[in-house]
Amino acid sequence: MTHSTGMVTKTLLLVDKNRLNPYNHVGSQILKSRTVLNLALAFSRTFFMILSMFFMTLYMVTGPYGYSWKNISWGLLLGAMLGLTLIGFELLFRRFNLRSFNVAILGLFIGYFMGLALVLTLDAILQISSATIHLPPQVLEIIKISLYLFGVYLGTLFTIRSADELYISIPFVRFTPTAHRKKDLVVDSSVLSDARILDMASSGLIDHCLIVPRFVAKELYILTESQEEMERAKAKRALEIFKKLESMPDLHMRSNDTDFPETKDIMGKLIRLARLFDANILTADISRIQMANIEGVRIINLHNLSNALKPLMQAGEHIKIKIQRYGKEPRQGVGYLEDGTMVVVNGGGEYIGETIDAIVLSVKHTSSGRMIFCNAPDEEGRLHSEHDEH
Known about the structure:
This protein is α/β, with parallel strands linked by helices and 390 residues long. The chain has 4 domains: 13-92, no CATH class; 98-169, no CATH class; 185-308, 5'-nuclease (Rossmann fold, 3-Layer(aba) Sandwich), CATH 3.40.50.1010; 318-389, CATH 2.40.50. The protein contains 14 helices and 10 strands. It has helices at 2-20, 22-61, 69-92, 98-128, 137-161, 166-169, 189-192, 196-202, 214-223, 229-246, 266-277, 289-295, 302-308, 377-389; strands at 185-187, 210-213, 254-256, 280-283, 299-301, 318-326, 332-336, 342-346, 355-366, 369-375. The protein has a 5-stranded parallel β-sheet. The protein is elongated.
């Protein structure tokens, strides 16, 4: 009896705990909104399926053969097929967001005028040279249809591919959200050759905002044929990382074809591209920071970002560190944390190969990273004894 009472009490406590947990409340709200959305989608699909069957049946019944069970059956069958086709298209374009839809509609609009211009140009050419060119009506119609479809396809394709540059051609048109917009990141070859960009991309921090210029990829392909072995290996590693980034389904990395032939320097091209798209530059090359700052483009350095994410140490804090080698000063030992931070331990030279509990003295920031200075336990005791003697 006591055991069952305890089980009931634990169950009630668990229910109260879940009820008080704000994350459970948020999760229930998300689940509720998803349920409403699924119900709306199910209703819309059913409604359009009924509409398709109704209109196809009405078409068959009002045909030349009139009202019959055969026409009704054919109408229902064709309507069901049409409804399933509509649902299939809806499922196929499930990830097609509103921005992409607007770009596609504008592309069709531009393509329509492009195809119409090609057909009108052909008509004008035929009218001017009617004395020398005589084409059968069927051939002429096929040529016009082909030109029109070519113009529509080309205009739609160019608009979709160059949606980010569209505001350059059409003033005041820019398909980017205005509220809470985060800037894109234009990457250079030094970032692509650094494997840390893979971890950064998989974290979700840079989703939908990574731009790889074509001239950077072209530079890497050229370096793979270099005579220097280090440059060749670095370029090949960068291309491998580039392919891995492209294969990440949630990253949505974009390649950009914009080039500046009059600018020969790669960094100059990166700066011009960043200014064109109001973007930042992500680099792992420290020497490139100063030039971009002069041009008014913000540089995000991968090394600085990595150092900023390293754990901070407070003076007086105890850390466990394995002493791996001797330091520059007498009796000093050097070890490394898991993230690669160098730890210099006074008195640690006596513990080479051992893991000791060191006491943090200070943290020094350098251009190459962060260094932590510590005292070994016996060093603290020696300093206190020397202080007492004085």
